[in-house]
Amino acid sequence: MDVWLIPLKMLDDDARAIQLGAVAELAVEPGQREFVGDPLRMMLISLEEESRFPYVIEAGGAAVGVLTLQTGAATLAGWPDDESVWLLRGFFIDTKSQGRGLGTSAARAAAEQARKLTSRLGGGQAGVVLSVNERNGAGLAAYAKAGFVDSGRYLGGGAGPQRTMYKAFA
Asked: What is the DSSP string of 135-157?
């Protein structure tokens, strides 16, 4: 199934409010909350920070998740520097929509969106990095299917050991 990334910062106030209302309805399994936090809170924080670009993930005309691309923060995922890559963070697919390949599709779309942002903003980034908890097997598999390569273990995550994963721009 195709996914669309809806850029919250590019919407007018009414359209943004509608999208945020849909985000508020997304469900997080209790065991996932330690990995992803609260999706609405993540989007609201991302709207306030200049370095963050929040997106609602849509499939079939409905919100199915969220993600944020951020510049200048890659060391938060165990990357050696902050400037050479985008950080993909706050990635989440709604409980009802999991297991359908939407995470893989959205991760691919996020990397493509980051490439476009690099071209538009002239930041010079070479790809996208993320960290995923080692206990999150579904996340690890989805990112690998989307072309992200495991770059090693990262112990900086608050929820336990992480895997740093990287995807270079094509």
From this structure: T-HHHHHHHHHTT-EEEEEE---
Residuewise pLDDT in 10s, the chain (170 residues): 799 999 999 999 999 999 999 999 998 777 766 666 788 999 999 999 999 999 999 999 999 999 999 999 999 999 999 999 999 998 989 989 988 999 999 999 999 999 999 999 998 999 999 999 898 888 899 999 999 999 999 887 677 899 999 999 98
Per the CB < 8 A criterion, the answer to whether 4 and 108 are in contact is no
The number of angstroms, rounded, from the C-alpha of 44 to the middle of its chain's C-alpha atoms is 14
| Pairing verdict, β 127-133 and 86-93 | parallel
Run of H or E including 110: helix 102-121
Residue 15, H or E segment: helix 13-24
Backbone angles phi, psi at 22, to 5 degrees: -65, -40
Answer yes or no: pTM beyond 0.90: yes
Q: From the CB of residue 37, how many other CB atoms can be counted at a distance below 10 Å?
A: 16
- How many other β-carbons are positioned within 10 Å of the β-carbon of residue 112? 15
Closest C-alpha among 88, 105, 98, 108 to residue 32: 98
Cβ distance 63 to 56 under 8 Å?
yes
